[in-house]
Design brief:
Strand content: 15-25%
Structural class: alpha+beta
CATH topology: Glutaredoxin
Helix content: 25-40%
Mean pLDDT: 88
Strand order of the largest sheet: 4-3-5-6
Number of domains: 1
Distance between the termini: 58 Å
CATH architecture: 3-Layer(aba) Sandwich
Low-confidence stretches: 1-26
């Protein structure tokens, strides 16, 4: 009986990459190989951003860092034509500071910060319900250099034109900081 049980378990076992594979069963080789839901409810294949520099930021509307939306929009405005995409990822994981619905979040961002950069639907970025994209970004197996749980709202992950994670910046790193701007412009300079 033990052999039968072991065979059944083995037959249904999947590797970590398969478990985290985006829709369609593709193997995940980078953070842009995921399909997410946009704040408007439509599917967003992150692969459409390959070849661009992508700044993923977990955002919240009722946080001390919320004014960073203004700086993120300014970054996007300044560098979009050069190939930068800022993507906001709403999350209610920290102090319940993003309690709104996707529609409320979208209205808040447009009304208060004139946000035009892409926004995804609200997801978990830590804990047992963590979105597969954030499992990938924070796992030691898939991201040994920048692994570890997201610490708070407005943590930033920078993805280079090559589709690989090239930097991670804590919440306190402002969008217009020399550190972040230099990292972005360095990646934009790569063709």
């Amino acid at each position: 009986m033990k052999l039968f049980a072991a065979a059944v378990v083995a037959a249904f076992a999947v590797t970590a990459a398969e478990a985290e594979a985006p829709k369609g069963g593709k193997t995940v080789s980078g953070p842009l190989d995921f399909t997410m839901t946009g704040i408007d409810g439509k599917e967003v294949d992150l692969a459409k951003y390959k070849g661009k520099v992508v700044l993923l930021v977990n955002v919240a509307s009722k946080c001390g860092y919320t004014p960073q939306y203004k700086g993120l929009e300014e970054l996007y405005d300044k560098y979009e034509k050069a190939g930068l995409v800022v993507i906001g990822v709403p999350s209610n994981d920290f102090g319940r500071q993003e309690p709104g619905t996707n529609e409320e979040i979208q209205t808040f961002c447009k009304t208060n910060y004139k946000v035009t950069f892409p926004m995804l639907a609200k997801v978990s970025v830590k804990g047992p319900d963590k979105a597969p994209l954030y499992q990938y970004l924070t796992s030691k197996e898939t991201d040994p250099k920048f692994s570890g749980e997201v610490g708070w709202n407005f943590e930033k992950f920078l993805i280079g034109r090559n589709g690989q994670l090239v930097g991670r910046f804590k919440s306190g790193v402002e969008p217009d900081s020399d550190e972040l701007v230099k990292a972005i412009t360095t990646e934009l300079g790569k063709k």
